[in-house]
């Protein structure tokens, strides 16, 4: 049985970390060139790389096209990151919500 990173205790990474650490070095191009290819501003791309901005569905489409891996990877990374962050943030509140079972 496969477990998710949340259940294994691993924090999901922000997609900007994958871009910064793995993708951009492999592409061997300056961030400004990548931003131009993506048709976004350098500031927009830098905010993602600094993990200050999310990868939106539009950006996921752009990254997926540029990298040839489609948008799903980028959308899923962002969703997992957001869920993990919010699960921690809302932990106490969620503990007070009952789980209902269908009759």
Outline the structure in words:
This protein has 103 residues and is mainly α. It has a single domain (12-95), classed as Orthogonal Bundle (434 Repressor (Amino-terminal Domain)), CATH 1.10.260. 65% of the residues lie in helices and 0% in strands. Helix 3 crosses helix 4 and helix 5 crosses helix 6 (72-89). It is elongated, with a radius of gyration of 17 Å. The protein starts with a helix and ends in an 8-residue tail after the last helix. The relative contact order is 0.14. InterPro entries: Lambda_DNA-bd_dom_sf, Toxin_antidote_HigA.
Primary descriptors:
103 residues; mainly alpha; 434 Repressor (Amino-terminal Domain); 7 helices; 0% strand; elongated
Taking the sheet with the most strands, its summary is: none
Number of strands: 0
Q: In which range does the helix fraction lie?
A: 55-70%
The general outline is elongated
Measured by DSSP, the beta-strand proportion falls in under 5%
Distance between the termini: 28 Å
CATH class identity: Mainly Alpha
Summarize the structure.
Keywords: DNA-binding. This protein is mainly α.
List the helices and strands and how they pair.
Blueprint lengths: L4 H4 L6 H13 L3 H8 L3 H8 L7 H11 L4 H18 L1 H5 L8
Keywords: DNA-binding
Protein name: HigA family addiction module antidote protein
InterPro entries: Lambda_DNA-bd_dom_sf, Toxin_antidote_HigA
